[in-house]
Q: What sequence folds into this?
C-alpha cells in the first residue's frame, strides 16, 4: 500500500468514527500539529504510534506499515494556495518574508531558521473583540558555514 | 518620489549610519517587525512616525511624504523564494499548510486566521544545544459568513 | 465519501430532477449565490441544510455528511479562466484591480475589503437596450493593524 | 510622450497638489471609478476631459495629448496579485467564479456579462459592526450567438 | 452524464459511422463551424438539434440531454498549442495581435471585436499555386463604455 | 540603431504628425494590416518603402536602415494578452482552435494553414444593430509531407 | 478507439514481438524517422500502411482505423524536456536558435524553414574517437509574404 | 566590459560596415554557424580570432578581451520562441523529440547525442519547387555510464 | 508492461520483503546509487541484472523485460522539488550553480561536467558533532568543440 | 552601495587585473569554492576578508562595506538553467533526486542533508581517457524533529 492510499483510508476512518486529531495526538503522546501532519503524510510514525492509531481507527496492518514509510513531502500542496486559510499563510511569506529575513539577521547574524529541527504550535485565544489564532514557529538557528 | 526610491534611500541611510531596525522601532514606539516591514515598503507610517525616522536618518521631506503612501504590497517578493531563509518559511506553508488548516478548523470551526488584523513577533532564544528562532503569528479568527 | 464525489452526485441529481439552485436556496432559506457556492463545494452546509437538500434530491446520508465537511476551496478553478464568462471577471481584476485599490484607499483609508466577512448578490436587470447583470460584492472593511 | 510616462506624471502631480480622484471626477463630470481607471491608463479621456485635468494639475499639452491615446490595458497588473486588497478580488473569482457562472446561466441563459459595456461603482457603507465596502459590477448580458 | 463523456461518445459514433461535420450541420441547419464547436463541447445545442444529432448517430437520451448543458469552455485547450495547425493561429495572435488592435482602433475607435456576438466561417479556396484556407472572423464592435 | 528604438521613433513621429496607418499604407502601396505590422516591427520594409516612410515622417537615414532589419518577431507580445481587444483573439484560439483544426482537416485533409504564406484583411462593416469587425485570415494550405 | 490507446497497443505489440522501427519502415516503404513518428501518433498512416502494420503486429481493424486519424500533435511532450536525450535537442534551440535565424536570413533572406514541408534523417556514423549521431533537418524555405 | 555590451557593439559595427557572418568566418577560418554563435555570445573566441574580428570591425581592445570571456549561454533566448523561424525548430523538438529518442536508441543503444562535442552546418539548397534549408546536427554518441 | 507499472511493482515487492537497495546492488555487483536509480526507472538493467532482481523479489518475466526498456528519464520529478531533502539539492544549484561554473572554467577551461559519462557516490560519515552526508559527483570534462 | 553593484565591480577589477579566484582564496585563507560564491554575492565576507580583497583588487571602502552585507541569495539564478554547465547540475537533481532521497533514508534514516551547515569542493582529476570533474557535497545530516 502506498502512502497516499493509506492517508485517504485514515482520514475516512477518522471522519466515520468522529475522532479528533487531538484525541489521536493524546493517544500517542504527541502534539496535535505534528500528529495531524503525520496523518496527512508529511511526517513519519514509528511502529508503536502506527499500531495505536490503527487500533483506534480499526485499520489493518497494511495501513500500519504504510504509516511508517518516509513520505514524499509537499507533493499535493497547491502553490500559490487556492484555499483562503492556507493562502493567508502564503501571503505572510509574500508580504513579510523580507522583513523576517532582516529581523533574524539583526538578532542572530548570518543564518536561517531551520524547518527540519523545528516545532510548531497552534492555539486559539478567546478574545471579546473576536477570538485569535496564534501560530508559533520554533526552529533552530543554523549559521551559514564558511570553509 | 515613489515608494521604491524612498525605500532604497532609507536603507542606504540606515546602513551608512549603522542604525538598527530595533533603534528605529523604539524611537517610534512600535514593534521591530512592524517597523522593519514598513521601512521595506509593506506597511505605512503616519506623519509623526515618518518625521521621526527622517530626523534619525537625516532625510528630507520628500522621503517623509513618500513613507506615508499606502504601498503596493509584495511586488518585489520572489516566489518561490530563492533565499534559503525565506524559502524555509515557504516550505513550512508547502509542507504544513494543510495541517494548519485542519488544526484551525478543529479548534475554531470554519474560518481563517486574518493576515490583516494580524501581528507578528520574532525572538531569538538562547539554547545550549543551539540558539532557536521563534516566530509568533497572531491573527484574528474570521468565520466564513453565510448569507 | 470525499467532497468532490459528493459535489458530482448532487449536481447529477439536480440535473436529473430539473431542480434549480433558486429552489434549493429557498428551501434552506439562503441566498442563491451562497447556496450555489456551497453545492459546488466552496462553502459548508450545516446539518439541517444538508438534510433538507438530500431530501429534495433523494440522496443518502453519506452525501448528507459530506456536505458538512469544511471544503478545500478553489482547487478546481482554472486560472486564468478559460470560460469566457469567468474570464470577464478575471479581466475586471486585471484591468480595474489597481483602480479599486486606489478608490477604496481614498474612501476608507489603509485596509482591504474582506472576502471572508463577505456576501455577494447577482441580479438580472431587464433593459430595452439589452438586459444587464448586476453583481454586488459586499465585504467588511478591514484596516491594516499596526503593532 | 508614451502613456506610462504620462500616468506617472499625473500621479506625481496629483500627490504633490493633494488632489483627490473624487475632485477630478467631479471636474470632468464622471464617476470616480472610471476617472481613476483612466488616470491609471486603463481608459481614455476625450480632449475636453484631458484639458480640464491638465489645468487642475498644471501639466502641459504633451500630457494632454497622451491622455487621449487608446491605452494597452492591464499590462502592469501582477497576476496572481501580491497586494492583499487586489488579491481578495482575485480570490473571489477563484472561489466564486464557477458559482457566478451557474447563477447567471440559471437567471439569464447561455451568455456572459460584458466587461466592455460595463460600469462599476464602489461605496463605503458605515456600519457599527465595522464599515463595509460595496462594489457593484454592472455589465450587459451578451448571449452566445449561434450561426 | 457530464459533457466530456458526452463529447467522447458523439465523436466515437461519428467516426464509426463515417459521418462528416458538414452532414450534421446541414441536418440541423447550422454552419459547419458552429456545429463542430458545439459537438466539441464549446457551444450548446437546443433540444431539437440535440434530438436530430442523436438520431443520426444512434445515441440515447442521456447524450441528448447532455448536449444541452451550458458547457465549461476552453478547459481542454493546450496553451500555447502544441499541434502545428492550432499553433499557427496562436502565432497570428502573437505576431499580429498588436497590429489588429491598432487597425481596429484606427477604423472604429476605442473598443473591441466581440467573441460572443461573433460568427466564424472557414473556406478552402482552390488555387493553382497551392490551395488556400480562408478563416473569416466576424464580431460585433463593442465600444468601451464611459460612466 | 536597433529595431525597437526605431519602432518607438516611428510611432512617436506618426502621433505627432497625426498621420494614419492607412495614409502610410497607401503611400507605399501596401495593405494597412501589413503596413501596420511592419511599423510595429513584425515585418520588414524594403529600401524604397523605408525611404518613403522616413520622408513622410521626417526621420533620418538611421531609421531608414533600421526599418530594413529582419526583425525578431513577437518578443513584446504579452501571452495570455491582458488587453481585452487582443485577449478576444486569444480566446477565439482557446475556444475554437480544436474546431478550426477539425474543419480544415475535413475540408482539406492532413495539413495546416500557413502563417507565413499568409495575408490578413480587417474591415469595419456598418450595421444598424451595431457595427461589426471582419478579420479575414488567408493562408496557403500546407500538407504534411511524408517521407 | 482513440489515438492514444492505439499508440499504446502498437508499442506494446512491437515490444512483445521484438520488431524494430526499421523493419516496419521497410515494410511500408517509408523512412524510419517518419514511420516512428507516425507510430508515436505524430503523423498519419494511410489505409495501406495501416493495414500492413496491423498484419505485422497482429492487431485488429480498430487499431487499423485509429492509425488513420489525423492526430493531435505534441500533446504528450514535456517542455522543457526532462529526458537528457531530448533535452539536448531543446538546448540546441536554446543556445543556437538565434544563430540559426541569422544564418538562414543571411543565406536565404526573410523567411523560415518549414516544419511541415519537411523531412528528417538520423544516422549513426562509426568513428574510432567515438561514434557520432547525425540528424539532418530538411525543410522548404518559405519567404514571408508581403501584401 | 561585460559580454552583452560587447555583443551589441560587434553587431552594430557589423551592420554599419555591411559585413557578413560568412566574411568574418572565413577571416578566422571557422564555419559560419560557429562564428555566428560566438558573435552572438554563445561560444568563445580565442585571442587570435578576437584580434582579427576587432581589426575587421575597427573595434578596440576592450571588445577584444570581452570576446574571450566564457559566456553565460542561452540567457536571452525566449522559450517557447516567439519568432516563427526559431519556433519551427522548437516545434520539431515538440513533435519529433520522442521519435528522435526512439530512433537513436534503436540505432545506437542507451545514450544521447552530445550538444557539447557537437557541430552544426546550415545549407541552402536551390530547388525548382522552392529552395530548401538543410540543418545538419552532428554530435558524439555518449553512452550512459553504469557504475 | 510499461516502465511505470514495473517500477511500482518492484518497489512494492521490495517493501514487502524488507530488502534494501544495498542488498540488491551487491547481488548485481553495482553501486547502490546506480542500482537505486535503475530501480526507480532512471537507468536500464541488462538481461542478467534484471533476472537476478526478479529472482530476489520473486517477480515474473514481464517485469524482467520491462526493467530492460530504455526509460523516459525525469518525467515524474517535481521541479522545484517540494520534498525538503530533494529541495536542498535544488537550492545548491540555485545558490552555487554560477560558482561551480566559474570554478570549473578556472580549473579546466571552456567546457562542462558530463551528466552522462558520470558516476555518483553517497556516503554517511559519522561525526560526534552530528553525522554528515557526502555526495560525490564525478563526470567527464567535455570541452566545447569549435568548428 | 548595494550588493549587486559591488559584485559587478569586483568581477570587473578581477578580470582587468587577471587575478584568479584561487589567488584570492589563498589570500584570505578560504576554499576557492566558498570564496567564489562570496564574490558572486552568495556568501558574506567578514571585515578582514573584505579588506584583503579590496587591497588586492584596488577597490575603495564602499566596496569593502558592501562585501559584508548579508546577501539576498539565488536571485539572479535562471531556473531551469540555460547554461549547459549549470543545466547538467539541474539535470542531476531532476534524474537522480529521488534516488538520492532513497539512499540517504536507507543509510541515515528520516532526515535531510543540510545546505547551510554545508561545504563543497571541486577538483579536476587528470585522466588519460579524458579529464574528470569531481564535486564533493558535504552537509550535516539533520533528522526531522518529532514533537
A:
Amino acid at each position: 500500500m502506498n502512502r497516499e492510499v493509506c492517508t485517504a483510508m485514515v482520514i475516512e476512518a477518522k471522519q466515520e468514527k468522529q475522532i479528533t486529531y487531538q484525541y489521536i495526538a493524546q493517544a500517542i503522546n504527541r502534539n496535535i500539529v505534528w500528529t495531524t501532519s503525520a496523518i496527512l503524510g508529511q511526517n513519519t510514525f514509528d511502529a508503536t504510534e502506527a499500531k495505536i492509531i490503527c487500533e483506534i481507527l480499526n485499520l489493518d496492518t497494511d495501513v500500519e506499515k504504510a504509516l511508517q514509510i518516509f513520505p514524499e513531502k509537499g507533493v499535493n500542496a497547491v502553490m500559490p494556495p487556492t484555499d483562503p486559510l492556507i493562502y493567508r499563510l502564503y501571503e505572510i511569506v509574500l508580504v513579510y518574508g523580507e522583513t523576517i529575513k532582516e529581523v533574524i539577521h539583526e538578532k542572530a547574524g548570518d543564518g536561517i531558521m531551520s524547518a527540519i529541527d523545528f516545532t510548531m504550535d497552534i492555539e486559539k485565544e478567546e478574545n471579546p473583540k473576536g477570538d485569535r489564532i496564534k501560530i508559533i514557529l520554533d526552529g533552530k538557528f543554523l549559521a551559514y558555514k564558511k570553509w
Summary: The two ends of chain E are 44 Å apart (CA to CA). Chain E has a mean pLDDT of 96.
